[in-house]
């Protein structure tokens, strides 16, 4: 079948996430399947500005489905935020005869693509790749499941040492503005308290919960705190608790970028594979300005404005689940 789109450019942008490689592989192989060329752009929008591109064939993406990170590399490009930078990027789009773009990244990357499309009319489809799971229009983002498993494994290890020393551990997990990782990993690892930006927290409630657990004979506890928690950062919160409850032997662990690495889980590989193909198919059907996502295990397309602006709500049932289990 002949398409008006003959060459698709793809890039990964923003924070990397496990499964981005599986998405790259899916895009490249779907392109081959539908008889269009695929060209990889390195380092996100930065590579588009610097013309750092590579033609990709089905075999150039072999043995990457199991690898974390992104073979195309990623970046947070300040220059792409400027009209001058985007003009340079467009010149390279023309030079490389790229007819459409697939952007694998988060809300920031989609915002950049939207502005670029408005300025230069280049069709694009977004694929949600971020561990934060903070993108509207999909039940899961690529990398979230792997990150959750990494966090749970890490907290299980902290639990061993917390129990041995009768300590109180404060664990910070990623989620710049979202508590999905914290809530789910907290439930899975048996946290006493989970502090997330979507819920109003207070030191008084935290202390009350710890006191309650003392009364039931608990000698050690885990408190999971999302990076974006509004009450304060983990060090401030630990210091405040220590001041009010000096008897607690508190330790602070910030899991940091360890959460972003590692071989993607089966779920992330399948998700990335489906969404990569869906992105190519959408472009070939003449669709643009959409994000491919998964809702109730079906591929759906969401207008990019909605994907950027709307937010998946935290499930109140899960907050209650965590509270019941911490009794
Ligand atoms: N308003 C914007 N205009 C142009 N480019 C943008 C804009 N917002 C984000 N971008 C581009 O997208 C990149 C990735 O965004 P960022 O927010 O860092 O990560 P993510 O896509 O994971 O949310 C930015 O570094 C920038 O190059
Ligand atoms: O790697 P960096 O640039 O320090 O950014 C850290 C941020 O990236 C994330 O890991 C993922 O966020 P994005 O997908 O928006 O890039 C956040 O959880 C974290 O706040
Ligand atoms: Mg983001």
Bound molecules: adenosine-5'-diphosphate, 1,6-di-O-phosphono-beta-D-fructofuranose, magnesium ion
- Gyration radius from CA atoms, angstroms: 22 Å
What structural class do you assign from the helix and strand content? alpha/beta
Helix content: 40-55%
Give a description of the structure.
The structure is a single chain. By secondary structure, this protein is of the alpha/beta class. Helices cover 42% and strands 18% of the residues. It contains 11 helices and 11 strands. The strands form 2 sheets. It has a 7-stranded mixed beta sheet with strand order 3-2-1-4-5-10-11, with helices on both faces. Helix 2 crosses helix 3, helix 5 (144-165) crosses helix 6 and helix 6 runs parallel beside helix 11. The protein is elongated, with a radius of gyration of 22 Å. The protein starts with 6 loop residues before the first strand and ends with a helix. Residues 13-15, 45, 76-77, 80-81, 105-109, 111-112, 115, 130 line the site of adenosine-5'-diphosphate.
């Amino acid at each position: 079948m002949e398409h008006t789109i003959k060459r698709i450019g793809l890039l990964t942008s923003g924070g990397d996430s496990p499964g981005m490689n599986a998405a790259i592989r899916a895009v490249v192989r779907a392109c081959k399947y539908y008889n269009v060329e695929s060209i990889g752009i390195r380092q996100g929008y930065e590579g588009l500005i610097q013309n750092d591109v590579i033609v990709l064939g089905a075999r150039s993406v072999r043995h990457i489905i199991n690898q974390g990170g992104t073979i195309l590399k990623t970046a947070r490009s300040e220059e792409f935020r400027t009209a001058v930078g985007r003009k340079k990027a467009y010149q390279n789009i023309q030079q490389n005869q790229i007819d459409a773009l697939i952007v694998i990244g988060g809300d920031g990357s989609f915002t950049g693509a939207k502005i670029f499309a408005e300025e230069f009319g280049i069709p694009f489809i977004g694929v949600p790749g971020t561990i934060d799971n903070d993108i509207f229009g999909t039940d899961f983002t690529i990398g979230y499941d792997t990150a959750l498993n990494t966090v749970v494994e890490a907290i299980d290890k902290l639990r061993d040492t917390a129990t041995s020393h009768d300590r109180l551990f404060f664990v910070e997990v990623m989620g710049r503005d979202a508590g999905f990782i914290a809530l789910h990993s907290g439930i899975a690892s048996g946290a006493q308290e989970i502090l997330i930006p979507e819920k109003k927290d207070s030191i008084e409630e935290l202390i009350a919960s710890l006191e309650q657990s003392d009364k039931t004979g608990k000698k050690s506890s885990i408190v999971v705190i999302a990076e974006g928690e509004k009450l304060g950062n983990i060090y401030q919160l630990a210091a405040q608790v220590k001041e009010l409850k000096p008897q607690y032997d508190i330790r602070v662990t910030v899991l940091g970028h360890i959460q972003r690495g590692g071989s993607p889980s089966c779920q992330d590989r399948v998700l990335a594979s489906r969404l990569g193909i869906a992105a190519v198919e959408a472009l070939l059907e003449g669709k643009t300005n959409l994000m491919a996502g998964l809702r109730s295990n079906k591929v759906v397309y969401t207008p990019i404005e909605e994907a950027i602006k709307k937010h998946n709500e935290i499930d109140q049932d899960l907050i209650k689940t965590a509270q019941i289990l911490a009794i």
